[in-house]
């Protein structure tokens, strides 16, 4: 069983930046692909970014078009932590952000592929 705990959310003005962290329990973190998803009120959960296990592809990354060039996902296997650096935030980025772990090393954009989820952290961007 893997437990994921997100942190770093908050209120920020448009154009600002935030860095989300997701700390994972367990000794198999490095072999998991990790993803970030977000869900705005009344909307479905959407893919944001993912990073593969380093053993599979050197830690290749994937981004939703809406965040490409503004968000960066990274991982520190020594700390069992995955990060989401978010820059140039706009009000459309407002959502609850969820961290997820996939027991396979290959990343996916489909939330159904992920086996473990954090509780989410709120990000609010004011205009």
Q: What's the short story on this structure?
A:
The chain is mostly beta strands and about 130 residues long. It has one helix spanning about 55, and strands spanning about 5, 10-15, 20-25, 35-40, 45-50, 60-65, 70-75, 80-85, 95-100, 115, 120-125.
Structure report:
The protein has 127 residues and is mainly β. It is built from 1 helix and 11 strands. The strands form 2 sheets. Strands 2, 4, 5, 6, 9, 10 and 11 form a 7-stranded mixed β-sheet that branches. A 4-stranded antiparallel β-sheet has the order 1-3-8-7, with no helix packed on it. The protein is globular. The protein starts with a strand and ends with a strand.
Q: What descriptors fit this protein?
A:
4-stranded antiparallel β-sheet; 11 strands; globular; 127 residues; 7-stranded mixed β-sheet; mainly beta; 46% strand
What's the topology here?
Elements: E1 4-7, E2 10-13, E3 18-24, E4 33-39, E5 46-51, H1 54-57, E6 61-63, E7 71-76, E8 81-86, E9 95-102, E10 116-117, E11 121-126
Parallel strand pairs: 2-11
Antiparallel strand pairs: 1-3, 3-8, 4-5, 4-9, 5-6, 7-8, 9-10, 9-11
Q: Number of DSSP strands? A: 11
Structural class: mainly beta
Biggest pleated-sheet summary: 7 strands, mixed
Average pLDDT rating = 94
Radius of gyration: 13 Å
Question: What is the number of helices?
Answer: 1
C-alpha end-to-end distance: 40 Å
Provide the low-confidence segments as ranges.
none
């Amino acid at each position: 069983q893997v437990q994921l705990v997100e942190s770093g959310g908050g209120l920020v003005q448009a154009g600002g930046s935030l860095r989300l962290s997701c700390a994972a329990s367990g000794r198999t973190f490095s072999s998991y692909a990790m993803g970030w998803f977000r869900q705005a009120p009344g909307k479905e959960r959407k893919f944001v970014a993912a990073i593969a296990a380093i053993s599979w592809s050197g830690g290749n990354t994937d981004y939703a078009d809406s965040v490409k060039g503004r968000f960066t996902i990274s991982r520190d296997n020594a700390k069992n932590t995955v990060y989401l650096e978010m820059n140039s935030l706009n009000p459309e980025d407002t959502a609850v952000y969820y961290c997820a772990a996939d027991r396979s090393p290959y990343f996916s954009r489909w939330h159904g592929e992920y086996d473990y989820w954090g509780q989410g952290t709120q990000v609010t961007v004011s205009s």
